[in-house]
């Protein structure tokens, strides 16, 4: 019969035994059963309290005949269960449970009441002093009912030693200060745990206890300036024991591993502190979790470190294998156990005083370990399904053992056997080659190492053939003759072509798969419509660049369009099912360390790493390429990152796709909008570099409950204008394009005579069908550009209008074709005071509307605005993140004056702002310099030449591997500030630096004696202090009203 596991199971067993105990022998059997239970659960308050009550009942029952005991048993019971024996059991129980902060008082209060009962009517000074000492000791230990204990102590002293009451209370106050402080630090955790227990939810209890344990462990390992723990380690030990005995965590191997790790650390650091032995805890851990190969492996290692005899070690090994459940959580547990056993056998052979018998045992044991792992693997996965340990860990130990014995041939045979299962791994061939070079005699020809590399490069499915080829050539250069080097060079050249074809084939297959998926899935951002109602199309704005930039524009646009497929694929990243949330990382963890830790589990698209507010840990949100990668990464749940046990949970249900919010919304707006839903972990905005009209973001919450609550805001009206969209991120949710262009109802016309108007085109094209809208493109002066768009009600009518292609209308030949769109829109332009339009009910909107032809056109035409005048009224803003849209920029620049036009240029990290007058431009140039547009990013002002001298922001959303990741910083790289030189128009609308856009007031006397203040103050100002540059800047920004 197997032993019970957990305090409740033991209590059920002893309760049944005590209920049926009818004679002294059976009652003594119950006592022995209690001792076994307490050996398994030595810190259990329930078991100790029941045991003490049982022994006390035996003591009271045998004192007289009322309990019905036979006289012989009564006399023997009085001898076995004397008062001293019973009180000694109570004292043992009180000592064992004294550090259980929440319930240790239950047993102690019962014991102290019995002690006081024995004192009734007696004036035993020795016993009185003993009880006073018990109270004083108890009050120096933190516990939940300290105030009640203090009151009991005060009452006792008042009754039995009143003259010493004041001095005793002073002593208590002094000695108990630390205990009260220690409990006050833990009170919040205790309350949270108590509420979880009251709820009856086991998961809530486990979560509260895990949080408490993490905090308590951090306190115990943190040291003071005197290199002492900042908190007594015994409190952490007690909390672990409480969690393992009284919560469901006792059946989770991870908690036991945490406890063992903590004990090992504290024992090494503070060897003189009395704590439970590591080996006793490991033994109990394997009893609670017999399926954990990791715990059995730790049992082997701990027993070896305790120098237990081989017979005991062998008994532990057989106990582990006889459980038959080591593979419950996969083969890794089996491998971990046999790895520890194999390492133990190998170390015995090199220990001082090793015998031939030790070597024989290792020979047989190592081979047996390999065979046993093979049997476990085939039993679990089948003969064909089991491919062996991908890290061949036990085989490495065996090879090392054979190498130490000089059995190179046997070791080489084992390497050759591994080729069958590990032959497609670059890491395997590298280890194989290194071993061959280790046993190679330098004075001989390196034939065997060369043959190993030659065999490796000929593997068709090798995961990294390029690296193996590199090692092959380097080896031949360093160790082989010219003939072998030529042979290797020829082989590598020939195989390189095969590898290149393989890579091309893989790329083609990936492209074909993408092409198949493309019709079924569209990008999540809402389709952007032009003002005509059609979908996005390339616009033809007037060029704002200098001549050099204008020459490069065509090439840059072409390159951007060539990358459109890649960007679309990026947008289809299934963030909902390809992310994991990793918690309890060290606070000093970096993205590089996190990437290195998870790199073997899949390709990572991005990592968002945040340090928690308490500075004790960090949390990472990692996006992988596929859901399969997420499953692999989840294997690290509960494993260690340095000295931290991390939790890896799927990010499914955490990320929402949010759109149709006001165009000026930023992080602060969204956090306020969703503040009642739960904590937001991160907000990711799209780059506007290739499409400046995007208005959406991805919000990742801490918990699934918070994300669910946030989805309830979907459809909520914001300001009576916008209808919020907040849905789970799902790139497969296809949204068909809408509008005249997408529906084939819009035609594009070029070659329009400049004298023609919309009415003229209505007359010519109206005969083909009913026209929805006609728009002729015009420049700043209101003149026709010779191109336009016409939208019909029906697709057939638009197709019929194509008959006018290549026909002459007035003085020019028309070109008529169907409108075609593009997702490439690197700029966003707004004119006049209008803001971005409200989105429709489906969330389809343009970030910034196309201006109507009449905006400012008449004024510009009448005044014949010159380029020089426009230049003086225009400033350039630089260092704008490419995630900030034109509406947010407009909100910043609008307070300085009326805006004629704003052009957002995320491809140059900036924007061009044309004001209605020079003074407004000057105020903005001064007021916006060093303005913090987002945390950590300050604006710079200048002219358009400065702006177009800046390159686009270099973002590293995806993880870069290799040389590329050394050239870019973690988040973005800002180009160095351009060197500005003074000039007539080099100050962004400020003109020549002679004045600040306003004239100084004249003196009342109208005199100037040549000693006028250099800052422009009149001589008649008398004793007024001189104005500084800062004063003039403030005056200028306020319009000279100061």
TrEMBL record:
GO cellular component: U6 snRNP
SUPFAM superfamilies the UniProt entry points to: RNA-binding domain, RBD (SSF54928), TPR-like (SSF48452)
Chain intervals with Low complexity compositional bias: 509-527
Pfam family, one: RRM_1
UniProt-annotated stretches for the region Disordered: 499-561, 822-865, 963-1042
Keyword DNA damage assigned: no
UniProt biased composition (Polar residues): 822-833, 855-865
InterPro entries per the UniProt record, alphabetical: HAT, Nucleotide-bd_a/b_plait_sf, Prp24_RRM2, RBD_domain_sf, RRM_dom, RRM_occluded, TPR-like_helical_dom_sf
Major subcellular location class: nucleus
Record key words, sorted: mRNA processing, mRNA splicing, Nucleus, Repeat, RNA-binding
All copies of domain RRM, residue ranges: 578-653, 654-731, 745-821, 873-946
Composition-biased stretches (Gly residues): 985-994
Gene3D superfamilies: 3.30.70.330, Tetratricopeptide repeat domain
Domain of life according to the entry: Eukaryota
Function summary: Functions as a recycling factor of the spliceosome, a machinery that forms on each precursor-messenger RNA (pre-mRNA) and catalyzes the removal of introns. Chaperones the re-annealing of U4 and U6 snRNAs (small nuclear RNAs) released from previous rounds of splicing, an initial step in reforming the U4/U6-U5 tri-snRNP (small nuclear ribonucleoprotein) that can reassemble into another spliceosome complex; this step involves binding U6 and facilitating the unwinding of the U6 internal stem loop, followed by base-pairing of U6 to U4.
Protein name, UniProt field: U4/U6 snRNA-associated-splicing factor PRP24
Lineage of origin: Eukaryota, Fungi, Dikarya, Ascomycota, Pezizomycotina
